[in-house]
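Dear U.,

Please find below the material for section 3 of the report. The protein was modelled together with flavin mononucleotide; I have listed the sequence and SMILES used, followed by the predicted complex structure.
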Amino acid sequence: MKESQTDLIKNTPTDHKIHDLIKNRWSPRKFADTPVSDTDLQSLFEAGRWAASSNNMQPWNIVWGKKGSETYDRIHNVLVEFNQGWVKNAPVLMLGVYDKMTPDGKENFHALHDLGQFAANMSIQAQSMGIAVHQMAGLKHEEALKEFKFPDSYHVATGIVVGYYGGEMDDLPKDLQGEETKDRVRKKQDEFIFNGDYVKRAEVKPKNQ
Ligand SMILES: Cc1cc2nc3c(=O)[nH]c(=O)nc-3n(C[C@H](O)[C@H](O)[C@H](O)COP(=O)(O)O)c2cc1C
């Protein structure tokens, strides 16, 4: 991240030491004017490309478009209204799509997991370049599938917004501006990490008891 952008790091109260690329990544809704070059995009896609996947099937597909292009507008059109409201200033929009079937016609239960790994790789690569990635489940999944001519066995899982950290608060709808400066929060590890049997969350005692 560039020096001038350090004010764009959110407070992330980690309980243990982690890499700065993970600690400082977050999902903004405003972006700097700086365009994301083809070279930048190729690096992001390349990072995704080298993600692990079940049986190395690589079931991921990405549709992308830069602001001002027809593809960008087509991706924008298949987002839900809430997301359309804030993404309009983002320099790049993408869709994350996966094939639900294996090449031999069986259901690939791991495909969504694998697309997630692609997106995670891409996010961390982006972070190393001062670029933010904001994923979105809020899209019109069926409409997107048809719009981009994917076969029925595919699922358009996510919208992905990509752009350099920065931008102006006024670019955002008023009700979303506060979200940009809020501390990041996470569940505590003992709510979801088990060194043995699963324990229902309600039965996990708060740390101070
Ligand atoms: C699969 C997925 C779907 C998401 N869907 C949306 C969405 O539709 N709209 C939105 O504004 N943010 C969306 N987010 C962003 C999350 O709200 C965000 O990642 C979460 O609050 C944690 O914040 P952080 O990424 O800044 O740590 C989504 C994130 C993921 C990974």
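For the text of the report, you could mention the following: The CA atoms of residues 133 and 162 lie 5 Å apart.

Regards,
Y.
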